[in-house]
Design goal:
By secondary structure, this protein is an alpha+beta fold. Helices cover 39% and strands 13% of the residues. The protein has a three-stranded antiparallel beta sheet with strand order 2-1-3. Helix 2 packs across helix 4. Bound molecules: zinc ion (2 copies).
Length: 120
């Protein structure tokens, strides 16, 4: 059987195409970041960082503690990866010094624009 949405071959016994489900989950997870990011911008929360593959990445906020966790650049997070945290100011500073993953920083920057409606 072929998925009507993405034309990928999918297992006959599945009701939903895994590729489309995965894409929808990721889109929903992305939208879910907006509220916690607003809190970070207001100083009421901190960004969680993870050291992996020789770099420092920013972890996406999870819906619940059992959910699989990802960095903003799309890497799966392992509990063994060293945790840290950053305020928004510290992130800007780290990005300037090049000590944080550029892709993660760009993603957070994009989402921050969405999270914070222009107050002008
Ligand atoms: Zn599909
Ligand atoms: Zn990253």
């Amino acid at each position: 059987m072929t998925c009507k949405k993405c034309n990928r071959l999918m297992p006959d016994n599945m009701m939903a195409c895994p590729a489309c489900t995965d894409r929808a989950n990721r889109a929903a997870l992305r939208t879910y970041q907006l509220h916690p990011l607003r809190k970070v911008a207001e100083g009421g929360a901190r960004l969680v960082t993870r050291h992996m593959r020789g770099g420092r990445h920013i972890q996406m906020f999870a819906w619940n503690k059992d959910a699989e966790q990802y960095t903003f650049c799309g890497e799966a997070v392992d509990p063994a990866h060293r945790r840290g945290s950053l305020t928004l100011d510290e992130l800007v500073d780290a990005a300037e010094r090049g000590t944080v993953c550029e892709k993660c920083h760009l993603q957070v920057g994009d989402l921050m624009v969405e999270a914070l409606p222009c107050s002008a």
